[in-house]
Write a structure and sequence with these properties.
heterodimer; A: 403 residues; alpha/beta; Alkaline Phosphatase, subunit A; 2 domains; nine-stranded mixed beta sheet; three-stranded antiparallel beta sheet; globular; B: 446 residues; mainly alpha; two-stranded antiparallel ribbon
Chain lengths: 403, 446
């Protein structure tokens, strides 16, 4: 079986050369990386960045409000971060965290589905064309088209809406194993024969324009990318502790992929459970802790593996939650929320307008900052892409130091 | 027909007009004959064999949950004796694309699915009238919130651009006037309700006509518009025959549409019996959708599967039934094939042919494709597998790859032994072979 395995590796390597996938090459190491984290369900911005000294905060939320001991004050402001966000608070103090207030969609839509689609497509009318904002933007790079490892959805199955381009969706990776041929585990000795047969079935480069020829071409790309992933990520070792659970494991996979010279520029992950209609306090505290510790672990791991200067992390959520609590110790769907941008390249600080609890709109923290200003900055100032074709004329924030 | 032998032609018909061929089915159909089979597919009036699953609705199948509705539909697609009825429900689901994410009501999605099933072969104009009054559609395209005081143009625009004429014959003014005509079409207690108070019953000018049109009038005008017949016939041709421009091949379909007042059954009859449908240009020319790939594989391999596990697998391949990516439905064709969706297909193939799929998803019987006749050699195994699953057609390098897989021993320490179709072979190499055949580029084609 050794021979078969050698052959397999050899054909994999040849395939890579032919496809010019971004394998070990100096150029790929200068690429900046964006990790986008979706806080699905609508994160309550008011208990994330808290107007702790405003008495109206307490009266709107007799049970859901955080006590002064549950928050970490932000110097020289009436605001504080949820104490679960201790690690992010540390980044803020070091000037590596941008906290964007009152961010949301211009026309408020309280449907999870609608609002998520608007955020993910960066289009206010999201149902005509499903292409995502990041997928479309990355296709501006000629070399991104046909390079499946340019962007990866992590953890999901099926497509990652943000990473759907006009040409093809970038892949979703539940795990390294799922992005590989998986032979029957009962016959491990038969596995090399299965794998080399799959390669051989797709080996012919004869292209008569037929669908079969097209499928063979995509299959060769997939098999090469799969073996590139498998071999390039083998050397990854880390002592950094990630939060327990799937989200932490997914962030570790991101670090593993970034530590390999695969040229991946963008990742998308989802942390779900923010739809806190009932018993909000414990649930949100747990989720924000995972978020904060996860981002901090990723940055620490990035530091250890030498790519931290190329890394920025962006969080978003489809909407914030109602200022007034409901009868179940929770909050209902609202409007504006809070987004974070983290990393050493980030120009830390507060962005946007601080909420005025005396000026709520229909009981909501209004959306006072168009979410597309966030995207515009990330695209233009971090990834070096043109923002206008993706987000229109929205002026970018200045979220990065060397913008 | 030119270039296609009767077996291939019949298998082609059963893949396109249904969800593929089960073991032993092809010979039975061939004995009936092609034209008679077309007739049976179109006119079948007997027992659809689905009473069993329908009895579970309201019991273990809870239609308040979309997973249960999906499970019910998957079961129907696999087991129905009226495959074309389910295939048309599938076609109309892609045409009148409606997503449960926005609708937020699984019952309504099931109701809509039933409209596609009951009226999917009838007159297009009747189907259109029903879909336009369907709660899922009224919710998905905001018809339910279209009021005289605040017209919402969403449905009015899509019914023209996507459901009937397509871009071209109408202006923005027509969209606005149609939106007025649909005002007051609402949902009450899960059913269509006309609210006269919200309806604008003034005069409208629509597509060059003038009158106090209501929604029914607009739909009738649209259904009868020549661009609608042209467009629906084209779409049916592309779905059932091939994606290339049909040219003159569309003529018999248009003729049938015009002669029958837009009967889908008559258009399909003309299509299936046309030369273009059975031409080499159509045979294995389309990429299977995930539903066709999954359902067709289950049917081809026999055995048992858990229908509930199939919905999520299709979703991972890019087709989440009841949740199309947009109001335009699924793009289909080459868009089905991406690096990750291919791995999903390969790994579905591994799971479904394995002795037990993940979470007990499947237990196919690999021997079933031999229909009780023992193969006598590796070549015999290969030949009959390729015949059953690929109409006997695989490029030489594909056959060579499969043969060399079968010839490599699965245990390098074992002594070389003559071919035996024994339990070890069936459970090991034969399952591996099926995994590989289902992973071939050719098998991805319908």
């Amino acid at each position: 079986m050794d021979l078969t395995r050698r052959e397999l590796l050899r054909s994999g390597a040849a395939g890579l050369a032919a496809l010019s996938l971004p394998l070990p090459a100096g150029a790929s190491d200068v690429r900046r990386i964006l990790v986008v984290i979706q806080l699905a369900g609508g994160n309550d911005g008011l208990n994330t960045l808290v107007p702790i000294s405003d008495p109206r905060y307490r009266s709107l939320r007799p049970t859901v409000a955080l006590a002064a001991s549950d928050v970490l004050p932000i110097r020289d402001t009436p605001l504080a971060l949820h104490s679960s966000l201790a690690r992010l608070h540390g980044l803020f103090e070091r000037g590596q965290l941008a906290v964007v207030q009152g961010v949301g969609t211009p026309a408020v839509n309280r449907s999870h589905f609608e609002s998520t689609a608007i955020w993910q497509t960066a289009r206010l009318d999201p149902h005509r064309d499903p292409a995502g904002w990041l997928g479309r933007a990355l296709e501006q790079r000629a070399d991104a088209i046909g390079q499946p490892l340019t962007a990866l959805g992590i953890g999901g199955a099926g497509t990652t809406p943000v990473l759907v381009g006009s040409h093809a969706p970038f892949p979703s990776l539940a795990s390294l194993e799922a992005f590989a041929v998986q032979p029957d585990r009962r016959f491990p000795q038969d596995a090399p024969a299965i794998k080399s047969a799959v390669a051989a079935l797709n080996a012919s480069t004869r292209d008569d324009g037929s669908p079969a020829a097209y499928i063979r071409r995509v299959a060769r790309t997939a098999l090469s990318a799969s073996s590139a992933l498998a071999s390039a990520t083998q050397g990854y070792r880390s002592t950094v502790e990630y939060p327990n659970g799937p989200f932490g494991n997914q962030l570790r996979l991101v670090a593993q992929l970034c530590s390999a010279p695969l040229g991946t520029t963008a990742f998308h992950l989802t942390l779900g459970g923010f739809d806190t209609h009932a018993n909000q306090k414990g649930q949100q505290a747990n989720l924000l802790r995972q978020l904060s510790e996860g981002i901090a672990a990723l940055l620490e791991d990035a530091e250890a593996h030498g790519f931290v200067d190329r890394l920025a992390v962006l969080t978003y959520s489809e909407f914030g939650r109602r200022a007034q609590e409901n009868a179940s110790g929770g909050t209902d769907h609202g409007a504006g929320s809070v987004a974070f941008v983290a990393g050493p390249g980030v120009r830390g600080g507060l962005y946007g307008r601080t909420v005025d609890l005396g000026a709520l709109v229909e009981g909501d923290v209004p959306s006072t900052l168009d979410f597309r200003a966030l995207y515009a900055s990330v695209l233009q100032n971090w990834l070096g892409l043109k923002a206008a074709p993706v987000v229109g004329s929205t002026a970018p924030l200045t979220l990065f130091r060397n913008a | 027909m030119a270039g296609i032998d009767p077996r291939k032609r019949m298998a082609h018909l059963l893949r396109r007009a249904g969800f593929g061929v089960a073991p032993r089915e092809l010979d039975r159909r061939l004995a009936v004959g092609f034209e008679r089979t077309v007739h049976e597919l179109l006119e079948f009036e007997g027992d659809d064999g689905l009473a069993e699953v329908d009895r579970l609705v309201g019991g273990i199948l809870d239609f308040n949950a979309i997973d249960d509705v999906r499970t019910w539909w998957v079961y129907r697609m696999v087991h129905t004796r009226r495959p074309l009825v389910e295939k048309m429900a599938f076609f109309w689901h892609g045409h009148f694309a409606t997503g449960v994410g926005k609708v937020g009501n699984a019952q309504w999605m099931a109701q809509q699915n039933q409209i596609f099933r009951e009226h999917g072969l009838g007159r297009f104009g009747d189907l259109l009238q029903r879909v336009a009054r369907d709660p899922a559609m009224l919710s998905y395209l905001d018809g339910a919130s279209n009021r005289k005081a605040h017209p919402n143009e969403n449905f009015a625009r899509e019914v023209m651009e996507l459901f009937t004429t397509g871009l071209g014959p109408y202006s923005e003014k027509d969209v606005q006037e149609a939106a007025r005509a649909f005002t007051g079409w609402q949902v009450k207690d899960g059913a269509f309700a006309f609210n006269a108070g919200d309806h604008d019953d003034g005069s409208k000018s629509f597509l060059g006509r003038y009158g106090r049109f209501d929604g029914s009038d607009v739909l009738r005008i649209l259904a009868e518009h020549p661009a609608t017949g042209q467009r629906i016939c084209q779409k049916l041709f592309a779905f059932f025959a091939h994606d290339d421009p049909p040219g003159k091949s569309l003529q018999p379909l248009l003729q049938a549409w015009n002669d029958s007042g837009g009967s889908i059954r008559e258009v399909l009859r003309a299509l299936f019996l046309s030369e273009a449908f059975s031409s080499p240009k159509a045979w294995r020319a389309k990429i299977k959708s995930p539903a066709e790939y999954v359902i067709g594989t289950i049917r081809a391999l026999g055995g048992t599967v858990t229908p509930r596990a199939m919905g999520p697998l299709m979703a991972r391949m890019g087709q989440d039934l009841f949740n199309p990516p947009s109001v335009k439905g699924w793009d289909g064709g080459r868009a089905w094939i991406s690096t990750s969706s291919l791995f999903e297909r390969f790994n579905f193939a591994a799971a479904v042919t394995g002795q037990r799929g993940p979470e007990g998803t499947s237990h196919v019987d690999p021997e079933s494709i031999f229909e009780g006749v023992q193969p006598t050699s590796v070549d015999d195994v290969l030949e009959r597998t390729v015949t059953h699953l690929l109409d006997g057609e695989l490029p030489p390098e594909g056959k060579a790859a499969l043969r060399s897989y079968l010839e490599v021993p699965d245990d390098p320490k074992a002594k070389p032994a003559p071919f035996a179709f024994d339990h070890r072979f069936v459970d090991g190499k034969l399952r591996g072979l099926l995994h590989l055949v289902l992973s071939t580029p050719e098998y991805q084609l319908s």
